[in-house]
Amino acid sequence: MFMLHSCTDTSGLTIILHTMVPNLVAKFCAERIHDTTAEEWEKGGTDVDGWHTRWETAFRRGFERADNDVAEESVAPEIVGSTAVVVALSGCQIITSNCGDSRAVLCRGTQMIPLSIDHKPDREDELARIEGAGGRVISWNGARVFGVLAMSRSIGDRYMRPWIIPVPEVTFTTRSEEDECLIIASDGLWDVISNDEAGEVARNLLRRRRRTTLSGLISHSAAQAVADHLTDLACRKNSSDNISVIVVDLKSKRRRLQRHSTG
Questions:
Q1: pLDDT tens string for the chain (263 positions)?
Q2: Angle at Cα 175 formed by Cα 259 and Cα 182, nearest 5°?
């Protein structure tokens, strides 16, 4: 059975994780990655011009620390691991750190913008890295490292080193007035629902909730309704993998109320 853990922190960090064993690597990472990333960020100094590098370094070291802590504290056996997507939001940037095959996408107007690229073993650069380290990717119910794992990066899964690595890829996206929401989900959603379909569902439901609500509905309630709907839709489409979804409404309550009062 696949188990999931997801959380949103008041600092603006949102995380999706999943693991093969309940409450082990995923739960541990959800409790630690906020702190380790923040600590590594503080070590980066105050060089404003190098903020891209500072974020990349903070996430890379934060993920590496979480991976080391899993081993050093014997959180789980070496055959257990977790993917992770972490999103940091500021007033002008969306910073996404991904390790594994969960995914974050941005709904901007009528566009769906991928904020991460799945780490799949048959992705051209990942395949080259795995084979360059002496590994093999075998087609067994999809591309898998040595016929076992269907992702090429994760936290944990140390029995698959050096082919499975805990190194995240970090992307930077400038925010826009047209941004509607973020959809951050595990592969159980994306296996059966495309980015465009998820975006259309989210866009329509969010806008409908906004039109029919005055000031009584807070932003996260509308976002929760979208997350629940997407989860139900993936279940109805017979997804065979874990399904965990977080939706972040990027339209502020204040702006929605202003539009309503002037409309």
A1: 233 344 444 345 555 544 434 458 888 888 888 888 889 988 876 665 688 999 999 999 999 999 999 999 998 899 999 999 999 888 889 999 999 999 999 999 999 999 999 999 999 999 999 999 999 999 999 999 999 999 999 999 999 999 999 999 999 999 999 999 999 999 999 999 999 999 999 999 998 887 776 555 454 578 889 999 999 999 999 998 888 899 998 886 545 444 544 44
A2: 80
What is the value of pTM for the model shown? 0.85
Query: Do residues 34 and 13 touch, judged by C-beta distance below 8 A?
Result: yes
Query: Could you tell me which residues come within 8 angstroms of residue 51 by beta carbon, excluding any fewer than 6 positions away?
Result: none
